[in-house]
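Hey, can you fold this?
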Amino acid sequence: MQVLQLICSLVIVACFTLAQFKILSTDSAVYIALNLIGSSVLAAQAWLLGQWGFFLMEATWAVVSTVGMYLIARKRLGRRSRRSSATPAVQDSEHRGHTNAVVRTAEADGS
């Protein structure tokens, strides 16, 4: 159990360190997912061991990370639905192999 706690703790600390050095964005799915995994495992272990202060901290991190993942997923799904609602003429142009620049030019011309 100690090895798993050490691994999860190192994952969380590594994410935080990479974010401090601007290598990993705190808004990235990778950052939030790794925090969610690490904090969830540590919260579960704290619960099993009756370490209530540690449980409260890690469970809070897990909840915050879950909300962050939800927001990222909602944002990505919103982008996909906007893309799929593009006009048929634009979709047809994209499927025929035209570049986005050509499609944008055609949209600007109103054709």
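Oh, and this one too while you're at it.
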Amino acid sequence: MASTDRARSRVGRRILRVSAILLLVIAVGIPFYVCPQADSPRHADAIFVLGGYGFERYRLGLELAQQGWADRVVASNPGGPDNARLTWY
């Protein structure tokens, strides 16, 4: 009986530790994921546009360059040269 009480106690402490760590991670992470800091644009050496769904991000990168935020735009083209829309840019 004493060994089962000890085992239950160990399991209880382990659950308590994991719960405390999880609560800490959530409490620390909320400001970063729920209310992230958004800096205003500033001049840079280049604008990097990472590929993904849709083409609006490429247009935004070009618009930022036309507004003078950077002299160069570096865009990824995950579709390769077969992607006519991105090759056009």
